[in-house]
Request: fold
Amino acid sequence: MTKDEWLEEEIYVNGSGREPILVTDDPMTYMTRRDAFKKRGYGKKMIKQLWKEIRREENEIRGL
Reply:
């Protein structure tokens, strides 16, 4: 998966782009990871760091 594919993947979040929590009045929805990150106020540096962490975790799972 490329970084752009990862950012365009739809995820289940609340209206503020945050991960689901057990009790919330904020309705849940699907949006792209890119849109969720924008709503969270993440900049390019934060997104790059998250992408690196995802890649590292995938490599560990694969044993690379």
Remarks:
- The helical segments are 3-8, 33-40, 44-62.
- The mean pLDDT is 91.
